[in-house]
Design goal:
Largest interface: A-B, 76 and 95 residues
Helix content of chain A: 10-25%
Distance between the termini of chain A: 57 Å
Order of helices and strands of chain A: HHEHEEEEHEEHEEEE
Shape of chain A: globular
Helix content of chain B: 40-55%
Strand content of chain A: 15-25%
Radius of gyration of chain A: 20 Å
Number of strands of chain B: 10
Strand order of the largest sheet of chain B: 1-10-7-4-2-3
Oligomer: heterodimer
Number of helices of chain B: 22
Distance between the termini of chain B: 61 Å
Structural class of chain B: alpha/beta
Number of helices of chain A: 5
Strand order of the largest sheet of chain A: 1-11-6-3-2
């Protein structure tokens, strides 16, 4: 294996490739006048729903007719003001026990207007599988934390720790059967993003 | 080993179906156009992506070492494979040492290229492809026909039949919603029982030691977040220098592939889950050779979006399987001959040189130009089929002798008009198989020119 490592590196190093400068940060990213509106439209386009709420009570009221709230079920909530957890995630050692998770309510760090994506950090998730294995997902993002485009999004992210993070844009979907869009392939069947605050 | 024309002939033998395939892909191409036009900076993004790739390959060894160093710091184990066989052996060893029996795999063209599945299966390990399209072709014992839409060639009725046989769905059921739901249940069971998860890599980041995997279904994340072992396999060209470069590539990838603004899940993996293992396998398999070739180096820019397939008039009308290659379509017709020119000698000819592939390529690979260069290369390597070689020799002989050209031209103009059909349209004239020859003009261009010239003076 060390042999292959050296072999590959020396083959790559000895290949005559003309040098080319690394461009600086991309500065032409699109900007929007109304970030909330653009985000909501983009999220609707990918099958999700954006909800604007000034406080958790209002969010709870608006979520009451969303699919995740249509019946009681095993719930993992990191935002108890919207709905309480039915178990303690921090006590879950085996992620397989989350197989029957019905609803997850998780914080999103920020949201991206151009594509309806929300950055979800694994830092607060003892089990990283939660946003994927749950049947329904609610992400709660402070309304003030909206950026125009992905370039601005990456400006905000920091690296270095062994951490997981994911952009989630809409519910799980597939169009593998004759290009027919079906929501709910393997992951969440529905996604609501709450933009919280004024 | 059948060449592309013979396989394509089978595909177009069912004209309605070929038309349906053509339309399905054009629909995806149209969505791509809409998404691209929604961004005024689209062309600048393509430029930036191409520049980042050009810089990365010029410093690839340094970036590979930087990536390895940082990935190890995060707790990942890094392996190096010179070729497909070594890649398969490494993956098998990791699995075997941990007694793994069941593996779930998300889409990875690299593992297709290395034929990992049959290798593992032959040693008693169950490998389940979890992308819905890939699972469908796996059940049908077929290779994917498209790198983003693996079963684009299949009708929903055929998938319904396949699912009836393997997943116990109702006979005759073909509703995509119903079939997807059945697959969801079937694959949930596989996810929960898996001992290890395998993924490909869309982008690996040198400065952080992390990598990004993009899916719409969430199958990669489910696959690697339950079992204690994650193996990620990547070609060495997947590297990018900085995390901020993802801003450029993720904005291009999904828009080019399906017209979505971004994939549903863009997962950033940095190190293993606590108490779990993460292995990254870096694979060369011919890439370092292409790196040294000025004519073909840019093919390493490819981010596997599939846009060139969706736009290609030949791909759309001949189907992915006609290429008989891991990566079909325009970009495959460059990548595959680079690996095995004799096996894939017909692919660079499966092209009208229209250039549409190069126009839509998000990383600005000069695909159609490289295809033309490949044709020259095939002549040099004596890999042109006999029919083309003879045709070229005859043409060359005639074109070098103006008197012969004049004589034959005159002969053709008189004779073609009066010959019975069976003497013109026959086996030795493949051009005339689906087309009528044009009516021969009364005068040659030379006669016409001479007449005009005489008139003037």
């Amino acid at each position: 294996m060390t042999k292959s490592r050296d072999q590959i590196l020396s083959a790559v190093r000895s290949a005559p490739v003309p040098d080319s400068p690394l461009p600086g940060r991309f500065s032409l990213g699109i900007r929007y006048d109304d970030l909330v509106r653009q985000f909501s439209d983009a999220l609707a386009f990918v099958g999700g729903v954006a909800i604007q709420a000034t406080d958790p009570e209002s969010a709870r009221a608006q979520l009451s007719d969303s699919p995740g709230f249509s019946r009681p079920g095993k719930t993992c909530s990191l935002i108890p003001e919207i709905a309480p957890s039915t178990f303690a995630l921090d006590a879950v050692d085996d992620p397989h026990t989350l197989e029957d998770l019905w609803l997850a309510i998780l914080p999103g760090e920020f949201a991206v207007a151009e594509n309806g994506a929300v950055w979800v950090s694994g830092r607060r998730l003892r089990q990283r599988v939660v946003p994927f294995i749950t049947q329904h997902l609610v992400l709660v993002v402070p309304r003030s934390e909206l950026v125009n485009n992905l370039h601005e999004a990456y400006d905000r992210l920091e690296w270095g720790a062994a951490e997981f993070g994911v952009f989630i844009s809409g519910p799980s979907k597939t169009a593998d059967i004759e290009q027919s869009l079906v929501i709910g392939a393997h992951g969440a069947r529905s996604l609501a993003v709450v933009l919280l605050g004024s | 080993m059948q060449a592309h024309p013979a396989r394509a002939a089978k595909f177009i033998a069912l004209p309605q179906r070929a038309h349906w395939h053509d339309q399905s892909l054009w629909f995806v191409r149209a969505k791509r156009d809409k998404a691209a036009r929604s961004l005024p900076e689209w062309e600048s993004l393509r430029e930036a992506a191409a520049s980042i790739k050009a810089h990365t390959v010029a410093h690839l060894a340094d970036y590979l070492e930087e990536f390895e160093r940082n990935a190890k710091k995060l707790g990942a184990q890094v392996h190096w494979a010179a070729d497909a066989a070594e890649h398969n052996a490494i993956v098998y060893r990791i699995l075997a040492e941990r007694g793994v029996k069941r593996v779930v795999k998300s889409k990875s063209m690299l593992t297709e290229e290395c034929h990992l599945n049959p290798h593992l299966e032959s040693q008693g390990i169950e490998v389940i492809d979890t992308d819905l399209g890939e699972r469908i072709v796996q059940l049908a014992h077929e290779p994917p026909s498209h790198i983003v839409l693996p079963c684009i060639h299949k009708k929903k009725e055929e998938i319904g039949e396949l699912f009836h046989e393997h997943l116990g769905t109702d006979r005759g059921a073909s509703d995509p919603q119903y079939l997807t739901e059945a697959a969801r249940g079937h694959l949930r069971d596989k996810f929960v029982r898996a001992d290890a998860g395998l993924t490909g890599v869309n982008f690996a980041i040198a400065e952080t030691g992390g990598f990004v995997v993009c899916t719409n279904e969430g199958n990669a994340d489910l696959g690697v977040s339950l079992p204690p072992l994650h193996i990620a396999c990547m070609g060495i060209e997947k590297l990018i220098p900085r995390a901020q470069d993802l801003g450029v590539f993720l904005r291009l990838l999904a828009r080019s592939a399906t017209g979505q603004p971004i994939t549903t899940y863009s997962s950033h993996f940095h190190g293993p889950r606590p108490g779990c293992e993460l292995h990254i396998v870096l694979v060369d398999n011919g890439r370092s050779r292409v790196l040294g070739q000025d004519d073909f180096r840019r093919s390493l820019n490819c981010i596997r979006c599939g846009a060139c397939m969706n736009t290609c008039p030949v791909y759309r009308r001949s189907g992915g399987h006609s290429y008989n290659a891991t990566v079909p379509g325009p970009i495959g017709s460059i990548l595959e001959p680079a690996r095995d020119p004799a096996k894939h000698a017909s692919l660079p000819h499966a092209c009208s040189l229209c250039g549409s592939c190069s126009d839509v390529c998000p990383v600005k690979i000069n695909i159609h130009e490289q295809l033309l260069i490949w044709r020259r290369e095939l002549v040099a390597q004596n890999l042109l089929p006999l029919s083309k070689r003879w045709g070229m020799q005859v043409t060359s002989y005639v074109f070098q002798r103006p008197w012969l050209y004049r004589t034959l031209g005159g002969l053709a103009r008189t004779v073609l008009g009066i010959l019975p059909r069976f003497l013109v349209y026959h086996r030795l004239n493949p051009w005339g198989r689906q087309r009528e020859l044009p009516t021969p003009p009364k005068q040659s261009f030379r006669d016409l020119y001479k007449a005009r010239h005489d008139q003037k003076s």
